[in-house]
Amino acid sequence: MSEPSQNLRMKLADLVGRVYPDLDRDHLVGQIIQAFWPEGTHPRRRARTPSNRLWSPHDAMVITYGNSIVDGQHKPLDLLNDFLNRHLKGTVSSVHILPFFPFTSDDGFAVTDYRAVNGNLGDWADIRRIAAEFTVMSDLVLNHVSSQSPWFNAYLQGHEPYDRFFFEASPDDDLSPVVRPRTSPLLREVETAHGTRHVWCTFSHDQVDLDFRNPEVLLEFLRIMRLHVENGIRIVRLDAVAFLWKEPGTPSIHMPQTHAIVQLMRVLCDFAVEPIILLTETNVPNVENLSYFGNRNEAHAVYNFSLPPLILHALMSGTAQHLHRWQTTMPPAQLGCAYLNFTASHDGIGMRPVEGLLPEEEIGEIIATVRAFGGEVSMRTLNGGGEAPYELNITWFDAMKGTFEGEDDHQVDRFLCSQTMVMALEGVPAFYIHALLATPNDHAGVEKTGVKRAINRHRWDYPHLLALLDDPASPQAQVLRQMKRRIAIRCRQPAFHPNATQFTLHLDHRLFGLWRQSLDRDQSIFALHNVSAEDLSVSPMSINLIGGENWVDLLTGETISPTGTDIPFAPYQCRWITNRG
């Protein structure tokens, strides 16, 4: 390995001092470098500087489990590879394969072996095969491991180094300020070789939290990151990272040491020869979520977690007022950073990110409507007692069945409107496979597992799915065809670069409007989306179409005159009006 630069060592030493002030900085820096760059690998001489070159308008992501598609005969990762190449090649550039490791619960997020691919899915060769055609994102599930993992079994038996890998607390500690995403008890009593202990379990008693106060835990995850990179992974998702550092008597979320560890990982990514993007997953209120950009020195990308519930509200209520008010206050991502925009994901539709953004009565209307459309609601425990809605469990396609007034005939158009808004916003769009496939609620999955999230984690039988996609009248064929068409249009527009200029337009409350301008200022796009079931129109003058330009709607091909008649919108119609079509 070539000698690491002094700049790299200095950056790491500063961060090590903030996380582990009582340890030998130089020694730990050497261990970190050795963990991330073992024999045969080496860092760059200079850090990669922040820029907008890590992504482009061509970037779009699909989110999927490794076994979202099965047939009972072939490896699910082989089937996923076939589906991606058959139906999404040239449409999406990236694929997030949700945890593909051996696990015991939470559909992969209670990991037993971080170094192996789940044999029921395939192996590392299958991951590398997909990574040869698409940019692959993997999960670094670094907050907790399975209670049945070799690490935890070794802890129970008192074996080094795992005897100090897990966070212990006492029932007598002041745990009342701790922020929880679940309703289960925080501590789990276990018997170890050293006596009775109480281990910290943020999410479930099968998911035991690790103790990052021990630097050996951090070093082990840096080795795991390197393993991912060596197998073709180029986007690393830091799962549940906000809860990483715990201290009794504190909220134990967003701790300064947590941010410092994210910054440390960012330094390693910036010095990596491979272009590695760091994405933080923090399903929390908006201001807290944005803090993970740091000062251009933490995550390259963050999930835009407030977007799904706000889009859901706009389309259920028929007004974009709250979505518009929030969007006008959203800062543009700093240079070298980007939002990951989405509506549906493998989890439910988080409600914490709209705390303070939606009135309680409006949240109540959303919950009632979701339940009317066959959905469920998951709760979390509040500090001081009581519960509050944590997330809504429903497929996004079924959430689009209707409005606060009930079901109607606009489901497909309403769904496409929601996804078109995601495509138009500053950032990189991401689409859950079950949104692309118009998957209905999987009530049988919920009944079978007893897990509410199973409603949105259907496993498609591949022959049946292919038959539906071959039927032009099926919702699956209609939605995938229209989604591919709109994504293809989007990727050709410089004004839809993830960092291109964005301005929120002040229009009729039923229209959510954005002005996007390319980095070279050559192309403008006025992206207008009717979130209501009503016909309406907008004057060209109100969106300031520049005279002397030839304006065209990219989605319909219509010519739009800057001085002509009002522009009509059918229910849920979207228009992307540009001067460079």
TrEMBL record:
Alphabetized UniProt keyword annotations: Glycosyltransferase, Transferase
Single Gene Ontology BP annotation: carbohydrate metabolic process
SMART domains referenced in this protein's UniProt entry, alphabetically: Aamy
Entry's Gene Ontology molecular function annotations: glycosyltransferase activity
Keyword Glycosyltransferase: yes
Pfam family, one: Alpha-amylase
Residues annotated as binding substrate: D106, H144, R237, L238, D239, H346, D347, R453
UniProt key word Transcription: no
CDD domains: AmyAc_Sucrose_phosphorylase-like_1
Domain Glycosyl hydrolase family 13 catalytic, chain residue ranges per copy: 59-490
UniProt protein name: Sucrose phosphorylase
